[in-house]
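Record 1 of the preview.
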Amino acid sequence: MIPNNITKNHILLAIDEIERKGMPKENLSKKYGLFYKDKEYAPKYVISLANYFANGKNLNLSQFSGGIESNRFLENIGFDIICLVPEKPNQACTPLNRLLPDEKFIEEKQSQMVSSDYEVDESVLNELIRFEFLLNNGKLQYLIDCFEKNIDEAVIGKFIKSMDPDKIKEGKILHSHFGRIFAVYLNNPIYQGGPVGKISLGPLLKNYEPKQNSVFSDIYAKNRVLKQYIDQPDDWFAYFCEYVTIKISIHELLVDAPDHLHDWGYEDVRELRQCSEKTEKIYKSDLRKSVVHMMHLGINPFCQNIGQKQDISHLKDLDYPSFMKQRNSWVNCANFAANEIMRKKCNERIPLQWDSYSLCAFDSGPVFIRKRRELIFPRICGALSSYDKWDSPIAIHEKMQKILEPEIDILIGRYWDYFGPNNDTVEYFQTHSDMAIGLNEIKRSLNEKYTALEKSNNIKEILLCQK
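->
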C-alpha cells in the first residue's frame, strides 16, 4: 500500500534526486512512464524514492503494486502517466512527444482539482525575484554606508538613551532589538517608550538620507507592485507566502534558530492550531505569523494532505531538532491546522510594508539569492520536511545552512560569524572602513547571480496538489 502522506512535492523531490543520481537499471519501467518536463520516469521507483522524503526511507517495492495502483496514485496528485508499449500486437507505439494530454483531457483534469490550484504567473515570479534581489542589495548598502560614512553619535545617544561617549561607542549597528537601528538608518519613526509614541531619531548617518538612494527607492517601488498582486482576489496567498519567506523566514532559519531551540516545533504547531480555530476570517499579522510557523515546520499548505486533529501534548517538552525528528507524530495535526487557515485566510487589511516590523535581517543577516527561478517557499518547506539528520552533533545553524544551501546562494550568513563576535558597534564600524571593500565585492557577486537568474528558463512552479 502506498502511504497517503506522500504528496506531489515529495514526488518532485524524488524526480530531482533521479536527475542528480540517475535511474537504477533494474528499476526501469517497461510499460508505463511518469511523464514530466518532456522526460519519463518509472512510476513505481519514483513513489518508492518519494517515500524517503515523506517518511525517512525508501518504500519497499514489494509493499505496493506497479501498474494500476501506482499509476492511479500519481494521476490523482496531478501527474501524467503514459503507455510505453503498444496495447495491441499490431498497434504502433506512440512516440513520447505525441503522448502529451490533449485539450479535452486537460479540461477534465482541471475540473477535478481544488478551485485554488494554479501555476504562478511568470511576471509575478519575476517581480518576487527582483524584490528578493533588491532587499539583499539593500542589506549590503546599509553595511557599506555604515562603514564608509560618518555615524551621527547624537542620534546613537538618543537611540540608546545615553550621551555617555563610551556607551555611544558601544552602541549597536548590528544585532539591535527587532532591527530597530535599521529603521533609524532609514529615518523611520520608532517607538521609544513613554507618552510620545513613535518618533524619528535619524538619519543615522550625517548628511545622508538613504531613501534618496536608488537602492531603497527601487525597493519601495517594487513593494508597491507586489502589494497590487496581493490585493487581488486570486492566487494572492502564494505571493504572500513568498514575500514573508524572502523578508522574514530565511533570516529566522539561518540566524535565529539557535535562540529558539526550546520554543520552535511544538509551539509552532500550537500557534497554528490556535489560529486555525478562529471563527472569523484570518487577517494580516495572524496570517503572517502563520506563514512563519509553517516555514519553521516545513509545512507547505499548497501540497499537503488535509490531515486530522490529534493530541500531540506528549511532544511539548522536546527541543526543536528532537521535535522535527518526530515528524510523523505531529505532521497530520499541523496539516489540519494549515488547511483550516487556508480556508479562512483573507487578504483584506494586509499592510505589506517592507520597512516595518521584523527588520532583523537587515542588521543581522543573511545576504542571499535563490538558485532557481521557482517559488522558494515550497522548495524550502520540502527541504525541511525531508531533512533526516536532526540528531547530528553539528550546531542548529549549521544544520539550517545545509538544508538551505541547495536552494539559495548564501553570500553572507550570520553577521555574527562574518564580522566576528562583538564586532557590531559604532566604534568598530567607524574604525574599519576597509571592510567596505569586501562588501562591495559581494555586492558585485549578488548582481552577477541575479543577472544569471534572470536569463534562466525555469520559470514555473505548480503550487497545489489534486485531491
